[in-house]
Amino acid sequence: MLPPKVYSIAELIAWSTRELASFSESARLDSEVLLAHILSCTRLQLISESRAQVDPQIIAKFADLISRRAKHEPVAYLVGQREFWGLDFEVTPDVLIPRPETELIVEQALEWLADHRAARILDLGTGSGCIAIALAHEARSRGKQVQVVAIDTSAAALAVAERNAARHGVPDLIEFRLGNWFGECDSAQEQFDLIATNPPYIAPDDLIRDPGTDYEPAGALFSGVAGGDGLDAVREIVQQLPGFLAHPGIFLCEIGAQQGSAARQLVPHGFKGEILRDLAGRERVLRVFAK
Fold first, then answer.
1. Closest-CA residue to 252 (of 188, 182, 195, 181)
2. Where do the domains of the chain lie?
3. Contact (Cβ atoms closer than 8 angstroms) between residue 188 and residue 125
4. Domain 92-290 has what CATH class?
5. What are phi and psi of 59, to 5 degrees?
6. How confident is the model over 121-162, as pLDDT tens digits?
7. If you average pLDDT over residues 63-83, what whole number do you get?
8. Residue 209 pLDDT more than 90?
9. pTM assigned to the model
10. Residue 285 contacts by C-beta under 8 Å, 6 or more apart in sequence?
């Protein structure tokens, strides 16, 4: 706890960094992000004005955030946003926090889109809308004609995604639907050139995980039953690909770092599947093409 007195920005950062150092590898960064959020300024301003004294009411709010962070509550939820593909996304405990590794899906989708003037895109389990919105935003800036359907089982998550779409000027390019995977699509009438998804793929009994995930929606993280491989959701999606993926088309699905071999075995007959690795060399995305 902080003794009651007036503190400078530098003193608050030093104190909070010590408070978080025992469990966070980014204790100072966490501290700076949280204090900048409370002060409505940038991290650069914190440095340039480090000797400035902070109002006691601000100190109390900051101490509360540090206390919550010390209980592993994610910084993204504490400040209400997270950057993804260079865009700031609103996040709440109703949605999974966007991860940098998921940008590999966007990267691969845009690489494919470069050779196509127009495309119908489907984002399964959209959450915050980060994949759908990043693709729509990039497509518009590159002069591509796209229409995106984004599906999620959570009405609360869709509300966040819709606000994010408006925030980035692409609500006209995205149709949000409430449903489970392909349940809101009609295979007799709807075919998609590009299908992307970051489904839950962590096995329920996986003990190696960030305690911060306890704050995130379990349905967006965990799939299957105890003792399973975590691929139940991936399996369900891939089995339905033949009914919805246009020819030629591409399917991009995020997977766990040890799931590549098992995920590749799920690819339906007549399709070609391969595993892509992220910048850290970990298996990260199942990419599927029609042969």
1. 195
2. 7-71, 92-290
3. no
4. alpha beta
5. -60, -45
6. 999 999 999 999 999 999 999 999 999 999 999 999 999 999
7. 96
8. no
9. 0.92
10. 104, 105, 108, 252, 253, 254, 255, 275, 276, 278
